[in-house]
Amino acid sequence: IHHCMIDGAAGADLSQILMSPSPRSEAGPELPYMPRPAPSRSELFADSVGRSLRRPLDLLRSVLSAPAGPPPSVRRKLAQAGQGGESAGTPPSRDEAKERMRALASTVAQAVQSASPTPLNGLLGPHRRLEWLTMPLDDVKELRRVFDCTINDIVLATVTEAIRRYLFRRRVDHRRLDFRISAPVSMRRPEHDRRQGNHVSSWILRLPLDLEDPIDQLEEIERLTRELKEKDAALGVDTLMSLAEWVPGPLLSAALGRLPSSGPVNMIVTNVPGPQFPLYMCGAKLLAMYPVVPLIPGGGLGVALFSYEGRLCWGFNGDYELVPDLETFMEDVAAAFEALRRAAVERYLARRTAAPERAPVDEGASALAPETDVGSEGEPIGETVFEAPVERLLREVPQPLRSTA
Known about the structure:
globular; six-stranded mixed β-sheet; about 15% strand; alpha+beta
């Protein structure tokens, strides 16, 4: 299925429609199916003319209206003023239009700047290499609770360290690189979560390859993604794609020809949440689902992730010539994640060593409430809750890794 018809979220929904949560499910009644006749030339012509006439209005609507009402920054300003946010479908305000145009200008400024060339970038050939990796999703969630961040932050920090190790082995000075990734972001409205089609924009994110400590990398990633959310950066790419649909083909080709040859990003990293229960087809259980993201022009490596039944499935797609050692990069990803786990344990032990002796707790009071706060995702954080996930990490801490960076 072409990406223009469905995005990752719609594809995950489609897999649940095609399969069943029960191994003994019975086929439902056969529904009558009457295929529509192929459109005639006159119908195709009328449809094309109508679409062309609607394009200016559609363009104006897509540029000025946010995908889910006002952008987050506008909603925050309205909330502070006590006005609340406008619902989706209301006429766009001047502030919304300014937010969209500001985001568009920022995106264009990034697009015309070339990312640093690396051995992962160059002219793509016709052949590919594929690799797969599986991680327990609970381990990723534990790190998320420890560091009070998102699963996507953990993924991007893991990729950052893996890229550092890989480039170091290829004798590339990664400390001065402007290495950027494209991270797809869902633009679906809450009331249209189940709507089919492609409703994805993306962030352009610079990986902090100059940082050596895994925790420093994660904290910088978390800061960058939080900043992109506050600036509504995905609106710029979304608006730019809407403009590209309206611009005539020859003019668009000429504009693309003026972009840097190495492209504004080095690679793509996409993460799609999937069902956390088993799926079956004709009684056979789906064991795993490894995604494969197409390579972008000039980008010899793509990383895609899909979570399914308590596992995080990584799929690696590499150009056959540009990335001859894709299996080694996969091992770098596994080692980078273990390095982050070890850093979490070391932080925990450092806190335990530096923490003062606790005062006696009143038996009639809650021992958790006085020292518990709420994190960015609504989950409690604090020393007591911090201990729970790390205790398991302590039991499973791996042997020291030989750092290659």
